[in-house]
Amino acid sequence: MTAKSLLTTLLPLVSDLSRELPEGERYRRLLEAMRALLPCDAAALLRIDGEWLVPLAVDGLSTDTLGRRFKISEHPRFEALLSSPGPTRFAADSELPDPYDGLVDGLHEHLEVHDCMGCPLFIDERPWGLLTLDALDPQRFEPIELDALQAFASLAAATVNAAERIERLANRAEDEHQRAEVYRQASGQQNREMIGQSKALKRLVEEIDLVGSSDLTVLITGETGVGKELVAQAIHAASARAEKPIISLNCAALPDTLVESELFGHVRGAFTGATNDRRGKFELANGGTLFLDEVGELSLTVQAKLLRVLQSGQLQRLGSDKEHQVNVRLIAATNRDLAEEVRSGRYRADFYHRLSVYPLLVPALRDRGRDVLLLSGYFLEQNRSRMGLNSLRLSSDAQAALLAYDWPGNVRELEHLIGRSALKALGHCKERPKILTLSAADLDLPYGNVEAVPEQPAGAAVALVSGDLREATENYQRQLISACLERHHDNWASAARELGLDRANLGRMAKRLGMK
Questions:
Q1: Do residues 131 and 145 lie in contact, with contact meaning Cβ atoms separated by under 8 Å?
Q2: Closest Cα partner for 288 from 249, 236, 325?
Q3: What are phi and psi of 207, to 5 degrees?
Q4: Which listed residue, of 131, 189, 236, 459, carries a Cα 20 to 30 Å from 31's Cα?
């Protein structure tokens, strides 16, 4: 590496420091320049987020890597890189497991990363993150290249610093609440993170930022499993109430006789078993946010009492005449069509309009494109950690299967699928592998193996796989639903239970497939 080639590589990045670029593009150019300077098979930029490392940009690694969250204490190579003041190159025979084993893009066999080096990034003399380079050739990197990496790391730190300064300048026009939310997101809170890069998710995040800074009542709608509670948490975190509690209640999990007590509290002797005074969810959430999930399940009686509290801010505990004043922001969620419930007389119109001041629709997973791979990466890393594996990855046919599937159960279904498939795949291994790869067969999605469909005549199987993958998937779903309905004599509720779906989701799927 000559001084001239180093200068040629770095000059465009120096020029970028004064330009306003999207964060993702700025970091992509950074990695592209690093791979030109130090040829390798994969590179990544990761930011420290508490006890985690969060990938901001990757080049040469599988797409799902961007969705992974690496717990530093579980990855000794990352620990070693962060503990060093400068670049570190690991020996080819190092016994420390590589976090990227099996994740190099385009490889289908179990070929582990063999040459690895990285460098910590410091902003204002504080550790900010890591640059990592990996090569499949164990002799790719030479000791002299550590100096080049150190020089590049200094420029990378300047790039990151510039990006953050530009972002801060852009946020100066925002009010105090919005700036507080930007700071909270920068500091990171794992349980509130919304993973994805699709336009649908970005629009949702923009709406969350918009309504979060207000005090409006929000009605979150969407299919089962899309993450409505996560959206509610994000709205609360974006609000001026973020330092106060957010209290949740699943309205479908309690009978009517207990819902009022849970919401408003009770005094001793109010009913059998009420041995002490007890505050309800409204009082617990005072000053903060109350999240009512499955609000479509509330009875008309409870709706009327809730409406009074929302309008006046005053409530009475069960068995008491004393008024309690509360200041609560309400966020509600449902997978029902409440407007239709109002028209049919099963829901109060005044309560519905009080809830839906700001309606917010959470997109279904099938409408989020390649976000399914990023979310898969997040769940893969969670399961890798729980199962004590060095690496847990998806094969190319598994990725294609995930992208083609319709996801009636949405993100929750994906989470359960990854966990279940990983456990089953590990159980089929005679010896514990270093790298566990999930194939399409391991995922066992409905369209995955036509020959495995019971009592399927050969002609039907040929018809099923003709055409493109989505058409084949929809044909299979129609056949599966029709057969299930026939077994249950057109009882949709029973069919939904057998198929493991919510009744409303099955109805929507059938309608989309042209079955009703």
A1: no
A2: 236
A3: -70, -35
A4: 189
- Of 320, 321, 438, the closest CA to residue 377 belongs to 438
**What distance in Å separates the CA atoms of residue 194 and residue 492, rounded to the nearest whole number?**
33
Same domain? For 435 and 480 the reply is no
User: Strand pairing of 218-221 and 358-361?
Assistant: parallel
Cα dihedral across residues 124, 125, 127, 131: positive or negative: positive
> What local confidence, expressed as pLDDT, does residue 189 receive?
41
* First-residue to last-residue Cα distance in the chain: 67
Residues with Cβ within 8 Å of 313's Cβ and at least 6 positions away in sequence, in order, are: 325, 326, 327, 328
424 closest CA partner among 408, 436, 410: 436
Angle at 25 between CA 79 and CA 395, to 5 degrees: 60
The β-bridge relationship of strands 52-59 and 70-71 is: antiparallel
Domain count, the chain: 4
Give the domain extent around 317. Answer: 199-362
What pLDDT was estimated at residue 516?
A: 64
Can you give the pTM of this predicted structure? 0.74
Rounded-to-integer distance, Cα 318 and Cα 269, Å: 9
Distance, in Å, from the CA atom of 166 to the CA atom of 441, rounded to the nearest integer, reads 47
Identify the pLDDT of residue 483: 80
The CB density around residue 121, as the number of other CB atoms within 10 Å, is: 24
Q: What is the pLDDT of residue 108?
A: 59
Residues 156 and 16 occupy one common structural domain: yes
Alpha helices in 54-198 (DSSP H): 76-83, 145-171, 176-187
Q: What is the DSSP string of 13-74?
A: HHHHTTS---HHHHHHHHHHHHHHHS--SEEEEEEEETTEEEEEEEESB-GGGGG--EEGGG
Residues 100 and 22 in one domain: yes
Whole-number pLDDT of residue 135:
86
Q: What is the pLDDT of residue 123?
A: 84
109 is written with which tokens? 């066999």
Residue spans of the chain under pLDDT 50: 1, 170-190, 448-466
Give the pLDDT confidence score for residue 186 in this predicted structure.
38
Q: Please tell me the predicted confidence (pLDDT) of residue 423.
A: 94
What CATH number does the domain containing 248 carry?
A: 3.40.50.300
Contact 326, 315 (CB under 8 A): yes
Same domain, 26 and 74: yes
One domain for residues 108 and 126:
yes
CA 45 from chain center: how many Å?
20
CA 420 to chain CA centroid, nearest Å: 18
Q: How far apart are CA 129 and CA 56, in angstroms?
A: 10
The pLDDT tens digits of the residues spanning 464-506 come to 444 567 777 778 888 888 888 877 777 787 788 777 777 778 8
